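As the work plan foresaw, the team has encoded backbone shapes as discrete tokens. One protein thus recorded appears below exactly as we store it.

:::
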Amino acid sequence: MKIVLFIAILLISATINAQTCDCKKEFLYIKDFIEKNFAGSNDKVNAISKQAYEKTCKELLNLSRGKFSSDNCILIISQYLDQFKSHHIGFLPNFTAKIDTAFVNQRPVFEISNKKLKTLRQSSSWEGIYYHTHDSSYKIAVIKDKTPLHDYVGVIIESKLPTWKKGLLKFEAKLVNDSFLYGITYNTFHRPKFDGFNLHDNNNMITGDWRREGSTKKPNPPASIIVRPPQIDSKKLSDKTFYIKISSFDPNNRATIDSILKANEDLLKTTPNLILDLRNNGGGSDFSWEPIVPYLYTSPIKTFGVDILATEANISGWKKYLENENLSAENKNELREKITKMEKDKGHWVNIENDQIDSSLTPQLYPKKIAILINKRCGSSTEEFLLVARQSSKVILLGENSIGNLDYSNVVQIPFSCFPYTLLYATTRSRRVNFHQGIDDIGIAPDYYLKVNSDWIDEALKVLEK
């Protein structure tokens, strides 16, 4: 049984004041730690070239010595981590949920002229005026402002909250491509967090529920009255097709997935078609999707093995997962065996998962065809499932490429040396990278691409029942 560890972040209070931290020391600490412990460090640096990596690091180190480096340090570190282009590396805040008045008072204020605001209201690019669809407290202006730390900023232009005055930054980010920014968002308490921003819905929406002012689409209802769809659901669509939706493979969902499959066992064994809707499923644990595999199995399943960089920090991170109450006794025993292998060969790459060919299952007559709906928010353990599923002659993938976030996996966490944040990073490397079959930044392609605005379930029905 293969284990893909999941993140279980516990945010705890921290009494450290960021103003007392030295940004240069923190930057060098994170840089040294990542280079020694992140499983994708060498591959990622080689991909951008050692020279380009060192040039960027030198520029960021110079910024970390600046007069206002303490205020910008989290942004400087996010720029450093962004070089690795991995969704399995980042950080989370780790401090008490309260506003530091001294920090707020020293934040820079952006002045935007009325003439510029008028121009922004006519824009259809990233620049523009946006309101928050779930929180009427804010309105922001997104403007282009190219500096070593950001290309665009989101500036408060209207606020009902006294702690968020006009001119304060709500976010700042670098341009990755025409529709994606990467940087930080300042939360309610003015503390920065790692974030990414997509421009979508005909350039009228920014991820995070910021809608362009004047767009024709009606705003969403307040968050307090939004009815969230269940993470796991099922229904019969027709006499020929059954439907299962799974929005997360979080290990806590394993019991629900089991119960859905058992409750509908007779239908699954007699219905020709199955639609498995995995849209927006960012992953979790292989443990959660294992019960689905018998229904799609048609031939031996091949999987690449995994190596771990057996450093003290990585071993310590893995030991913490033994405290997870959701792991079965069997999985904990496997985990202990892997940790023992690491401890015997510290400082080296250790094979903790062999390449495998699993022929232990028996093909089932039903379902005969399985359509799996995927989109660009499918990642991590969900992609591991897709690599297994697409080996079945029953399976058809429909939608769009997955996110591409699996080659470097099994995330652990450590605190920053001084600033109140927790660093997250991957400890393992898939051996498919050795055979040029990596999927990071590429994703898993569907057999049929679907238009974003079409009814994907209806499209799947057409493919299955035509």
